[in-house]
Write a structure and sequence with these properties.
The chain is mainly alpha-helical. It has one helix and no strands.
Length: about 100
């Protein structure tokens, strides 16, 4: 019976050793997975930051484009007014020349 107990004890020791190896392997894999997850988080964070910067730049570009469009409209209005003024001036000068003739 002592031999049976000894065999069972040896079997239990091997089982414990196997379980410890499995635990160590799983812990190692978990550490690797956690490291990979951290790398993914860092990459995502960097990409999000880049996206937010690009979004801000795009907003600024839209503002500049809107301001440029408003300025073009204002300049077109000024050019139209100046053209009308010059047209009236030409008509007045032509009329003055006809009166002199």
């Amino acid at each position: 019976e002592a031999q049976q107990v000894s065999l069972e004890l040896e079997g239990s020791k091997r089982l414990v050793a196997t379980l410890q190896e499995s635990r160590d392997t799983l812990q190692s894999k978990l550490a690797g997975t956690q490291k990979e997850l951290q790398n993914v988080r860092l990459a995502f964070s960097a990409e999000r930051e880049d996206f937010e910067k690009q979004l801000e730049l795009n907003k600024q570009l839209v503002e500049v484009a809107e301001q440029a469009a408003q300025r073009q409209v204002a300049l077109a209005g000024e050019a139209r007014a100046e053209t009308e003024r010059l047209g009236r001036e030409v008509v007045e000068k032509q009329a003055a020349l006809r009166q002199k003739q």
